[in-house]
Amino acid sequence: MSSPEPARSAHPARAAGLALIGVAALALVIGVASLFTGGDDDQPGAQPPGSSSETATTGSPGSESPSSTSSRPQPTTTAPTTPAPTSTTGVPAGAPTTTPPPPVTPTTKPPVRVYNNGTIANLAARASEDVRKVGWDVVETGNYSQGVIPTTTVYFRPGTDEEASAQQLAQALRAEVKPRFDGIEGAHPGIIVIVTNDYQGPSGKI
């Protein structure tokens, strides 16, 4: 009986086919694995964009990249300045103004000497009392006979603090005020009052 023999020869053929299918499947698996793991090995030494070597290459001397171009300092322009408006006095508008200080009042009043140059008896003594009443100290009273004084006058030494005090005293006595003249220039320091017949005094009475 020869029928069983073909059946036995079919088993080795089937086994060989299964082996070929297994080899093909294994090759497929290896090919897929190499596709995912060996893509970066196609170009040895290549590095992905953004790596340190690419950054160094783009920033090398002599190269010009967009980043280096944008970092160049841009020329700046300065707008012309408009001068501040000034007033008619030449002082900038809005500038703080300073008020001149008030005149300095002497703290210590110089001594006063009163001389009569008129024809009214005891005129110097009366004028001395008026001088003391308005706040000055009279240290001497007498007559002046070296010339004729046209009007009652308060005299001071120029360039001294007597000037401001003499102006105040002359205003209180309603008299004139002048620098010393040659006839009394070398007299004692202080204010000299020479009264004449027109002397009025603080109250307007002689």
Automatic annotation (TrEMBL):
Secretion signal, residue range per the UniProt entry: none
Compositionally skewed regions (Pro residues) per UniProt: 98-109
Region (Disordered): 36-113
UniProt domain LytR/CpsA/Psr regulator C-terminal: residue ranges: 111-199
Regions of compositional bias (Low complexity) in chain numbering: 48-97
Protein name as annotated: LytR cell envelope-related transcriptional attenuator
Native source organism of the sequence: Saccharothrix variisporea
